Amino acid sequence: FIVILVIALIAEIFLISSVFGSFFGAGSTPRERLSADLVHTSRSWYEDRLGWIYDEDELLSGMEDFYEETGVQPYLLICGDIEGYGYDLSDDMAEEYLAGLYESLFSDEGHMIYMFMEYMPSYYMTFIYTGSDADRVMDAAAREEMFEITDRLYYDEDLTDEEFFSEVFSETADEIMEDGRGAGRYVVLLLSIAIPIALIWEFLRRKKKYETEERKRRVKEILETPLEPSQDEKELREKYLKPGEEDK
User: DSSP code of 28?
Assistant: First the structure.
């Protein structure tokens, strides 16, 4: 039982760590869907300069999910370089380029440009540029969450290019916005605290029961064990009693 207890407590430590990590991650930041009057819905959702997108409906399904949940309309730019710059594209250069692109595409501050630049096979960079209103939803934590989801899904060989980008947008929206999973996280947190307490209580109960039974066993053993004469008594008997004579 002790071995099981130790293993269970170690598992609980990892569970509690992951739960608290989710509480203090992007999903724990209070966010409200951007008001519809701050976004002028655009017909343009993406630009594919590499010719990756064939199933447009699949791509747009995830992007539209993102829009519905966040209120921020995303725009996807797929490219291999920016004005000849690939791996050597700096953050400042990317921001300057995307700022100009944003201004040419949108007349409000509720959009977001997500740029995915694969400058070599299996080597890519991602950048996010948002309008000032959209930035209230896509804050630093939300952007980091989107980058992490991108990194995780990029190496999933079961996904088509369209499914990859669709999942990135859909999962990001799920993670950064408050939804019904909030209550579930509280339940998991409660269980992660209650389970080790219950295990420790059961351990102490068994320990107390064992000690009580052991105490009873020792008392019974003492009562049932014949009293042996002390060493001094043995010496006196040997000194004064004749052989074959019993003491009375």
Answer: G
